[in-house]
Every structure is written in C-alpha cells, then in structure tokens.
C-alpha cells in the first residue's frame, strides 16, 4: 500500500523534495495523503509550514529566555 499518492500536478516524491528545498531543511515529516493539485495549493502548504516553523523558533527562544 502506497502511503503518499501522486497528483496530476506533481509526484509525491517531487512534492517532498521541493518542500525540503524551499524550506532549507529536511528534518521534518509531514502527514499528507496526496501531493498538491496545483501551484496555489503547494504554496498554501509551504506558507503554513513556514509559519509553524517560525512559531516553533519563537517558542524555543521564549523558553530559552526564561
């Protein structure tokens, strides 16, 4: 059983590789069932992950300041 499915826009492998490249890190795993269907959907996912990583950095900084 394949865990990740390709879409008509991109393969699941290309999706993960592009996320790793665009985020500049590969030390994360995301749960998804299918690669995005278009560029707008990809950008929405990318921007969501950027926000989450920034929130994590802020939380770590606040924790280290205490």
TrEMBL record:
Protein name, entry field: Uncharacterized protein
Domain of life: Bacteria
Organism of provenance: Levilactobacillus acidifarinae DSM 19394 = JCM 15949
